[in-house]
Amino acid sequence: MDMTGEERIAAPREAVWKALNDTDVLKACIPGCESLERISDTELEATVGVKLGPVKARFNGKVELSNLNPPLSYTITGEGKGGIAGFAKGGADVTLTEEGGETVLAYSVNADVGGKIAQLGSRLISSSAKKLATQFFEKLGQAAAGS
User: Fold this and answer.
1) Which of 5, 13, 22, 32 is the most buried (most CB within 10 A)?
2) Are 76 and 107 in contact (CB under 8 A)?
């Protein structure tokens, strides 16, 4: 599954960068995030519970940040295992551009799923991913803007 998009956030680029690298902010913004811990400067461990159609799963996994170019861009990659539900792995390139006091966050995601969740079909997975992304960016925008 590939997904690209842009989100306009009503906050300066530095504030958005800070929010994207704050584990407390991310935990509050990621839908279904139960835990998120930094294990090094570039690695995080997470537990996230999600419901995709009829399948409800809890994924445990690691996330790594690379190609760090503060406060302009980075690459995030990760893999999560959801037991019988399957697995999800992938990455995203994230770029921040400042435009008139706001920040345009552009992303390009590539993800693969396997196991029971892969049987749901690409349309359901894609629509669920877009819904989760919308929820994440709404909360991230609020956090970056300080509301």
Assistant:
1) 13
2) no
Report d(CA 44, CA 101) in Å as an integer: 30
Q: How far is Cα 87 from Cα 28, in angstroms, rounded to an integer?
A: 23
111 in Cβ contact with 90 (< 8 Å): yes
Return the percentage of the chain with pLDDT > 70, whole number: 99
Check which CATH number belongs to the domain holding 120 and give it: 3.30.530.20
Q: DSSP letter string over 62-114? A: EEEEEEEETTTEEEEEEEEE-GGG-EEEEEEEEEEEEETTEEEEEEEEEEEEE
| Count of domains forming the chain | 1
Range of the domain at 13: 2-144
Two structure tokens written together for 118: 């892969």
For 89-101, the pLDDT digits (tens) are 999 999 999 999 8
Q: What is the pTM of this model?
A: 0.89
Asked if the bond preceding 31 is cis, omega within 30° of 0, the reply is no
Residue 22: both structure tokens together:
């704050």
